[in-house]
Amino acid sequence: MASVSNVIMLCGRLCSGKSTYSAMLRDELGAVVLSVDELMIAILGRETGDMHDEYVRRAKQYILRKAAETARAGAVVVLDQGFWSRAERRDARDFFAARDVDCELRYCKITDEEWERRIAKRNAEVAEGRSDAYFVDDGLKAKFLAMFEEPDEDEADIVVEV
């Protein structure tokens, strides 16, 4: 098997399969998965109001520190948090490089049609109480579309076609 970085950063749209892919990597590699959504929902629930973006920022900072600590202890860490902007991806790479932790970016690429299908499926599961994920309403979808910057070809170390 090819060499695996200590930290695998997963980039992709919301509902692009990052959490499913994280679980697969956890099983295949014995990796530790750190998820911003999982942390946020477990501690704060789904309704964080006007503080949501600030709480996400804080959770991401905490998770980066924990990822570096865990990777330096010898484990493979999968970061399931989207890495939606180029600046966030660059800053994360710089963060790990400053701590001598090897990292890679894997981009979960999804077609627009599949993305719409997955959002509808997730929303149905949330509405039926079968999922504790975030409901993706039109406002959240629009906010995401305004924020997401698809990685350039040279930015992603691995592209995972979803």
Layout of strands and helices, then pairs:
Layout lengths: L6 E6 L5 H12 L2 E4 H9 L7 H21 L4 E6 L3 H13 L4 E7 L2 H16 L10 H10 L10 E4 L1
Parallel strand pairs: 1-3, 1-4, 2-3, 4-5
Helix pairs in contact: 2-3
Structure description:
By secondary structure, the protein is of the alpha/beta class. Helices cover 50% and strands 17% of the residues. The chain contains 6 helices and 5 strands, in the order E-H-E-H-H-E-H-E-H-H-E. It has helices at residues 18-29, 36-44, 52-72, 86-98, 112-127, 138-147, and strands at residues 7-12, 32-35, 77-82, 103-109, 158-161. It has a 5-stranded parallel beta sheet with strand order 2-3-1-4-5, sandwiched between helices. The longest helix has 21 residues, at 52-72. The model has no long low-confidence stretch (mean pLDDT 92).
Largest pleated sheet: 5 strands, parallel
User: What would you call the shape?
Assistant: globular
Strand order of the largest sheet: 2-3-1-4-5
Say which CATH homologous superfamily is assigned.
P-loop containing nucleotide triphosphate hydrolases
The sequence of SSEs as H and E is EHEHHEHEHHE
Number of domains: 1
List low-confidence stretches: none
CATH class membership? Alpha Beta
Strand content: 15-25%
Instruction: Tell me the CATH topology.
Output: Rossmann fold
